[in-house]
Amino acid sequence: MEVKKFECPCCNAELIWSAEKGQMICEYCGTEIPADAMDVLSDPIDSNDRIDWRTYDANQMDNSGMRSYSCKSCGAEITGDSTVAASECPYCGNSVVMNDQVQGGLKPDYIIPFKITKEKAIEQFKSFCHGKPLLPSDFINDHRIEKVEGLYVPYWLFDCKADGNLRFRGEQVSSHREGNYEVTTTRHFLLVREGSMEFEHVPVDAIKKLDNTVSEAVEPYDTHAAQAFNPAYLSGFLADRFDVSAEECKPRINERIKSSLMRSMENTASAYTSVRYESGNVSVNNGKVNYALLPMWLMSAVYQGKTYNFAINGQTGRFVGELPVSSAKVMKFILGITAGVAAVVGGIMYMMLK
Amino acid sequence: MKNMIRLIIAAVSVISVLCFGTAISAQAEEYYFYDYAGLVTDDEYYEIESELARISDEYGFDTVIYTAESLGGDTADDYVRNVTDQLVKNQDGIMFLICPEDRDYSFYAFGEVDKHVITPVILDDLADDVISYVRDGKDDYYSAFKRFAARSEEEYIYVIENGNRSKFTAKHILIAVSVGLLIALITVGIMSSSMKTIRSQTSADRYSANGGLKLRVSRDIFLYTSVTRTKIESSSSSSSGGGHSGSTSSGKY
After folding, report:
1. pTM score over 0.90
2. Cα separation of A40 and A268, whole Å?
């Protein structure tokens, strides 16, 4: 008969049973493990995640009445109805050419209509620029905005139920003084958490031209407001077609869902000074994928020969982007603050040492 | 012989102070030269003692020399602070400790002398000046002690003629500028980070449905307890009660 060995959770040496104490002890480091912990310690957890996403069932798009434009520079292929006359690519700003015939594409399951107007988007831009001391003074005027385009960006929306079987290590630390010594006592715990979370319409953008960081930065979208797709919503706006498959987006969505589940479980261990993840697995069940068009304003501004791109969530108005920084203002602030603080600190030291 | 008698009286004073605290410390304040290591002759002793007494009396700053046979395992800085607390009643002055056995020395400026007369920079210079007489095997202790008395008096006179010195030095200006630069860099860093709002998402919390996490199992199992003991180091520069506070310049010669 095989004799099972148990490892000390403190030093990994072999634990032995102490009949006198009625618990496992480590002869190497002296750690004593209560008997009720042994059933969990002796049952190693499977660390392999199990992911089960369904394949997306595509519906063909009816493109009648739509125009197609292609950008020879970045390869973007955007569509719009007859009310839109696109001349520039919303991603790279280069000229686009209109195609004679719109090629077939997938019909989106959902669409979130634009709620933010073009004027409001420009207001958001100005508001973002306001109160930025390092912004070049000559940047803040309307003429800097080269173009503002309302674009329906293709996204994959993921629904699933995630189950987690996770283990954490928790520590409760307390300290007190004994004579000339600081005595720190640490109580070590094994935290077992099993549970599930449901996720609905987690978006991942489905185009290569738009940086994932930008498309995630404008989140969140209120996906409960999503409507069943109707081509009428596209009137007056451009729309892109996906060039990244749902399959290619799954690693990213798995990462975000696992991170959420782990963090939610970790937050249930609030009674500990510190908590760290030890092992576990996550399984994704009932994974469903939908194709949707989400609204986004894209704008760009050119300053000293460099193009700065900005994006605004067309539903919530959330603005993201990166503004230019004036080197002269940076130097002015560094010198000014250094001189001011040095004068105050130096003055205090002088008075104290006088 | 007289020297021996004075040394015995001084020794009795030290022992009395150690045994009975401050009750009879007044007796110890009359002496300014404690030559326990016997580094000078009787005549030299009286000459230096009277010179130190004159300077101390004239300027109001105790100017004391202490030669020790051994430091008994203490550092020169700790030893000179302890000896000063035991022997010197005046809160302002300077003590010169030298121990030929370990070839240790320490100069301890305390009170007003430390703050306005022999500031740390001056103290280092004074130490170099005095120790040059005994360094590299010269061992001219008599000249070193004479130079200590003369140099101390020079510094007292300088302050009388030119006003108090300040401990505020170029080092303090450098510290003030460094603090200013650090705060400036942090402030500009925060301003700079506000220029960029493009940040990726790390989770999908905002899209959780049906009330978020549903826990089936939540079990906290106690494993073991570990205890660490760390000795609390006491600050060497702090002084308690009626002790002196000041700066030292020490080393080996």
Report:
1. no
2. 19
